[in-house]
Amino acid sequence: PVTQNILISEIQTTGGTGKTNNDFIELYNPNIQPINLNGYRLVKRTKTGTSDTSIKSWTVDTFIPAKSYYLWTNSDYIDIAVAPDFTTSATLANDNGIAIRFGAEDIGAIIDSVGWGVAQNVFVETQPFSENPIANQSISRQLENDSNNNAVDFIKSKPSPKNSGISWGFLNPDAWVVLEQLVNHL
To answer: Contact, 69 vs 125, CB < 8 A?
Structure first.
């Protein structure tokens, strides 16, 4: 089968204290036709990992509509704003990397990948996104294009998970804004 482009569009690795498994991965289909995920798999690697750990593999026909999203969440994430398309017990962590592959773990074609923090695994495209997301923060793809450089393609953002019911085309994330206030005490 011919593989089609799928983009990793947003990742959250924690919901904060007591919600460390509030993880999600959002995929985006930038094509003008649906993509059948049968034969694809979502995998992760630790900071310096050399083998894949499966998050989700598709063995039956499952479609992402054209210009739409697909949402995986950890099964403990029960108060998410939108219904996930699929859940498993897999978790994400600081300094990880994830990939969407076509074919077997470790050897299937990497369709898209992203590493963050100080990840040094094969899923890092050129440079990792330099920070680990914190509570109420995600890593979001800035544009529908993929320059194959995670440091350029992703920004910090407010989590905005989207599932396969969202088909508005690529939605640019709200830029994450960090405000610092200096207070002088007398």
So the answer is: no
Q: What are the b/e assignments for 18-41, b being 16+ CB within 10 Å?
A: eebbbbbbbbbbbeeeebebebbb
Burial 166-177 (b: 16+ CB within 10 A, else e): beeebeebeebe
Cβ-based neighbours of 163, under 8 Å, separated by 6 or more: 69, 70, 71, 82, 83, 84, 85
Residue 57 has pLDDT above 60, yes or no: yes
The tens digit of pLDDT for each residue in 76-132 reads 999 999 999 999 999 999 999 999 999 999 999 999 999 999 999 999 999 999 999
Q: Which residue has the tokens 């219904």?
A: 83
DSSP-derived pairing of the beta strands 86-88 and 69-74:
parallel
Rounded Cα distance between 153 and 148, Å, is 7
